[in-house]
TrEMBL record:
It comes from Paenibacillus contaminans. It comes from the Bacteria. Keywords: Bacterial flagellum biogenesis, Cell projection, Cilium, Coiled coil, Flagellum. One of its GO terms (biological process) is bacterial-type flagellum assembly. The keyword Coiled coil applies. This is Flagellar protein FlgN. Residues 84-118 form a coiled coil.
Amino acid sequence: MDVMSQLIEAHEQLLALSEQKTEVIVRNNVEELNRIVGKESRLTAHIASLDQQRVSAVGQYLTAKGYRPHPYITVSDIVKLIVKMEEKQAIQEAQRKLLNTIERLKEVNGQNQQLIEQSLTYIEYSLDLIVGPPDDEATYQHPANQYAGTKRSGLFDTRA
């Protein structure tokens, strides 16, 4: 149960970072965004470590109860094995809290992804206005088939 509490706390910290990231994306603060992403990476590694501890604790619990440990056993499966009602309720409450936090985390990350995609679309649009849309300039053309003019019709002359 201790590992489960740590997992919940770590996911809540990750959610808080994701919510901070939303504000940073809106403000277009790239340095702060990089700092938050670094924190998220460290926290994600910590969550992976906690999950390994959870698997180990579940294995020990199953062994103590006379069952063969299985790495993919779910919390719902564990609840079926618990006899004491208060322990059962505590684990179910922890499961509910963790699942709610993960669901909220998915929502915030989806929103952040949309904001980043909108930002990239705007940047691409702005570049196309300034330089003009790309017209397959990156593909090879035989020198005899090329002509002296540039294909881009933006505000800047790219041959300068």
